[in-house]
Every structure is written in structure tokens, then in C-alpha cells.
Amino acid sequence: MDSAVQRWRAASRQALSAVSAAELQPLVDKLLSFHYPMRGLAAQELLSLLNKCAVMCTPEHRSLCQSFAHLLATLVHRQEVSLPRDAFERLLSLQVRFLSLCSPSREADQDLAQASMRALAALAYGDGSRCAKFYDQLIGMPDGLLVAFVSPANPCASTRRAAMHCIEGLCTLPERKDRSAKSAAPVPSGLSALLPILMENLRVPPPSLEETRSDQHFEATLKALRQLVIRQTTVGDADLPPLLALLKTFMFHGLAAPAAHSL
Predict the structure, then answer these.
(1) What is the mean pLDDT of the chain?
(2) Which residues touch 18 (CB under 8 Å, ≥6 apart)?
(3) Residue 105: what are its φ and ψ, rounded to 5°?
(4) CB neighbourhood size of 172 (10 A)
(5) Enclosing H/E stretch for 118
(6) Under 8 Å CB-to-CB from 253, ≥6 apart: which residues?
(7) Closest to 12 (Cα-Cα) out of 25, 35, 28
(8) pTM of the model
(9) CA separation for the pair 41, 5 (Å, rounded)
(10) pLDDT tens-digit profile of 205-237?
(11) How far apart are the first and last CA of the chain?
(12) In angstroms, rounded to a whole number, what is the distance separating the alpha carbons of residues 53 and 70?
């Protein structure tokens, strides 16, 4: 057996037997230090570890919540752990709860907020509709948790970027559903409210073209816009002209073509 897998299982066993957050914290950090993906790890042992951490994470243990969010994102995104529906919803709900503890105006909250949004984005990746029951809480207007974090008024650029990646994930459908879903099911009302938010973010790009091309926040905004337009049957008459004007500005520089093509 691979020695890395053996060391991982030893750390995981210790984590499963931990009786306090203080005992679990360094073990979660140790599990984060492994190089993923790792061959030979069974889905059930990964799920048992995630369930254990979820039980131990409480609002008073923010550092553990942050480490667990990073571990969840890593295992879902890189290890590609498959989560049963009940576990998926339980872990998703927990990350939403973590995010609800944070405010974009408090600098001390930014690390936990970014970790939680990274985990949410990993859970939503490939099929944001799985998170539909949390749309109102996350992106409902005007008080959705992600709405404040993604606002151009938020001074923390890295948190804005994490929030936009999360919104991009919520807008995404599996490729096989992209075009068929447009006519098969109406876009949820929570997603429909995102268009003004995305347009607001497009109106404040980086000051130079080169920065615009390399800016991940801007790129995620365009990807979210494309997915949203794919899912909507129409764009409102009041929104279409300013949206086209925004996209036209960037298409001159070879940007935004996929989003414009979807209109």
C-alpha cells in the first residue's frame, strides 16, 4: 500500500477519534497537507471523515470551521469524492451557516468567508441546480449572503473574487443540460435576480485591458453571465440594451464573445 495513503489513514483515524475541536484542528490541517488526488481511498472513509468534522464544527471554533471548509473543497474538487444527497445537503447547509457568520465589512471574517465560498463553489461545480434550495439565502435580493460579498463596494478583492466564483458555480448546469434545459425548465427566480449584480460588476473592470484579461473576478463574472443567459428564456427589454452595450465594449478586445453569443 502507498505510504502516503497509510499516513493519511493514520491521520484520519486520529481525527475520527478526536473528542474536542482543539484536538481535531491540527489533524484537519495535517490532512490538508497531503497531495490530492490520492489513489486507494474509499468513498466511505472520506465520507466518515467529513461527517465527523461537520459534527465538531461549531460557530465558536472558527479556525476549525475554516480548515474544514478548505478540506471539504479539496476533497470534493480534487479527490472528487462522491456525496450522497443527504450528506451533500448537510455539508452545503453547514457552509452556508459558516458564511452567515461573516460580514464583508469585518476584516477578521474574510478568511472564513473565502474558505466557505471555496467549499460552496466546489459543491456547486458542474450543476448549480443541486443548491437550488439555498438560492434565496445565498443570492436572494437584497440580503443574499453572496450579494454583499460580491458588491464592488466590498474593499476585499479576493473575497469578491471568491464570491463571484461561487455565483458562477450556482449558475452552471451540466453540459448535457445546457441547451435542453433552457426550454425544459424555467430559470429559478433566485438566479433571475443575479443579472443586475453581474452587470454592476462588469461596469467596474480593472483599469487596463491587460488587467482585465487576467482578472479572475472579471472572468468569473463573464462565465456566470453566460450560464445565466443560457438558462434564461429571455432577457428583459429594460436589461438587454445596457447588457449588450457592456459586452460590446469588451468584445472589441476579444473578450465576452461567449456570453454575447448566448443572447
Answers:
(1) 84
(2) 24, 27, 52, 56
(3) -90, -10
(4) 24
(5) helix 110-124
(6) 209, 212, 213
(7) 28
(8) 0.84
(9) 7
(10) 655 655 665 577 788 888 888 888 776 655 666
(11) 53
(12) 12
Cβ(165)–Cβ(121) under 8 Å?
A: yes
Q: Which residue has the cell 466557505?
A: 116
Phi then psi for residue 202, to 5 deg, are -70, -25
Q: Cβ contacts of residue 21 below 8 Å, gap of 6+?
A: 56, 57, 58, 61, 64
**Alpha-carbon distances, residue 23 vs 11, 64, 103, 155, 164 (angstroms):** 12, 10, 28, 35, 34
- Cα 92 to Cα 10, 55, 103, 108, 136, distances in angstroms: 27, 13, 19, 23, 14
* Distance, CA of 7 to CA of 222 (rounded, Å): 42
Q: Which of 147, 97, 86, 144 shows the shortest CA–CA distance to 119?
A: 97
CA–CA separation, 156 and 214 (whole Å): 18
What is the identity of the amino acid at 39?
Answer: R
Contact 229, 197 (CB under 8 A): no
Total residues found in the chain within this entry: 263
Distance between CA atoms of residues 225 and 199, nearest Å: 8
